[in-house]
Records
---
Amino acid sequence: MFSGVSLVGFAAAICTTASYVPQLYKVWTTGTAEDLSLHMLLVLATGLALWIVYGIMQGDAVIIIANSVSVALLLCIVGFKLREMLAGHRAKRRPATP
Amino acid sequence: MFSGVSLVGFAAAICTTASYVPQLYKVWTTGTAEDLSLHMLLVLATGLALWIVYGIMQGDAVIIIANSVSVALLLCIVGFKLREMLAGHRAKRRPATP
């Protein structure tokens, strides 16, 4: 059904994609993404999006699927980070109550 | 010299590989990797190694080079983590001085 190459690709994809899950779980449960660098997350998201483009150009389904799942998980983490940053900005602009 | 596909692949590789650098820099400067999960690092290293095997099987130089650099950076982080864990074990086994 699947070639040996596809199976190695799927195993690689599962490992690298699964590694985002503990980070997302940590951000979700602690409710903070303060220690994560937004620049690092955006560079990584850009890279994963480019891997999807590369997979499409090469006609490589393993690369397309693996990086699509990874970028979806990563965008959830970016969402948490941006929400936290916006909340921080609003708190700074609100005048102090007596 | 390079095809459009290769250029997209190189750009993707540079972005995803570059994202390991700030983490390695942080571990190097702070001297601690306590907040990093060893299981996550090992799953990620396994995944990157499998991507190298996949690249070799597909004859895809971009995948081979990108993941080789990533796994080298990641193994430096794993080295820090293991050194820290071993130091912790030794400190626990040492009898308390009066």
---
Amino acid sequence: MDFSAIVARQIGADERRGFPVHFGSDAERHDQLVRDLVGLIGEIGEFANELKKVGLRLNNPKYTGPSLGEAAPHLREELADAAIYLFRLSTILGGDLERDILSKMDINDDRYRKLER
Amino acid sequence: MDFSAIVARQIGADERRGFPVHFGSDAERHDQLVRDLVGLIGEIGEFANELKKVGLRLNNPKYTGPSLGEAAPHLREELADAAIYLFRLSTILGGDLERDILSKMDINDDRYRKLER
Amino acid sequence: MDFSAIVARQIGADERRGFPVHFGSDAERHDQLVRDLVGLIGEIGEFANELKKVGLRLNNPKYTGPSLGEAAPHLREELADAAIYLFRLSTILGGDLERDILSKMDINDDRYRKLER
Amino acid sequence: MDFSAIVARQIGADERRGFPVHFGSDAERHDQLVRDLVGLIGEIGEFANELKKVGLRLNNPKYTGPSLGEAAPHLREELADAAIYLFRLSTILGGDLERDILSKMDINDDRYRKLER
């Protein structure tokens, strides 16, 4: 599915649910960015906590945490949640995340050419 | 552009540059996930630092930071960098980020129906 | 209680529990720093998730989250957990966190003198 | 130096510089917590970025990043900055970080007794 269509689906749902992305002032826009950044950190923190448990089990035979295979569905769900916050943050900033990612890939193609094998 | 095609472009470039996503053991897979999580945190930290400066200027007339409009291109670039790390983390986990995002949106459609106006 | 004595209590307990802070190579030292950074992100993520719920309740009358007073004990516990990770990270780096904090306060005293009222 | 005296020094300096920790409403208190959380994420992100460079050099002979020894002073400074944000967040929450850390260490002493060697 088209990247920008996925973003548009999320933003439309957010607006119906009372999580706006359009604001009348930079102060309001800033405050929403900060709130969504807090949400993003929460999702990445959940990813980190689950990955920590996997690492403890790999390194410590006494620890009864999940294997990486067992944790993978949860870890993937957290990445999806994090992506949804990126969609919101980008839209509040007036950005086009698809275009911004493709532009950054072009920059990286130049920057890392010397590392290519 | 198709979401999954964008992910595939990034992963192909990473592999040519010596940043692998396929591993022979869960221990190696875990170690790369941890390294990419560190990279993700770095990008989100840069986003946070720039957003902090915007907030200080909005709240403190003595502070000479960027306006939100001035900071937006930098902020958007950090979001693109963060998205690229999500592509890597998802792929290392054997995930399909496009599908995982769409599945999560379906779940959220059910969960948040009561908030819809 | 003395800052450095609190750090020493934690590091002593960690070593008894098999969470080392001394290593024979930079590669091992780096790997433990990365693991502890993941743990730190997990704690800050829990703080962020709880604070997000407080914000949703403050901004959204339909949302049944905790008040700030109700959330404060949990939030404070996450800060304590985060501090404990800072103790570990500092010690693995051969640092003296008390001294490093006091040095940074001296630097900030110079830097922010113009903001003082 | 006493842990709580170090916290008090920082909070006193913050108040002189116009970074308050006392507020008249939970809404204002929440907004400041969110702003300080953003600051904390920024510091941890700088730590992560520096640690990432160390890891790239350790794992990739083509990469010209700092050694762990070269990066350690910068990494330690970021930890001090992060600690200062924890002081602020704890104080805004009406907490006593020293007491909260010691309480958490007591809890961990019980919880991890079975891991002790």
